[in-house]
Amino acid sequence: MSKIDFAFWDAVGGYAEGREAMADIYDTHVRLARELDEAGWHSYFVIEHQNSPVGRITAPTVYLTAVARATQRLRIGAMMWQLPFYHPIRLAQEVAMLDQLSRGRVEFGTGIGVHEHEFIRWGVDYYQRAALSEEVLNIVKMAWTQDEVTFAGKYFQFDEALPQPKPYQNPHPPIWAAVHSDAAIDFAARHNLHVAQNLDTDEVVARKFDLFRKTWRDAAHPGPMPRVFLMRNVHVAETDEKAHAQARQFLTAGEVRVGGGAIAKTRIGWGSSARGMGRDSERPDDKARGETMRLAATSYDFNIESGLALVGSPETVARRLEAGKSRIGYDIFCGNFIFGKMPPEMARASIQLFGKEIVPAFK
Question: Which positions ≥6 away from 4 have C-beta within 8 Å?
Answer without folding.
Answer: 321, 325, 330, 331, 332, 333, 362
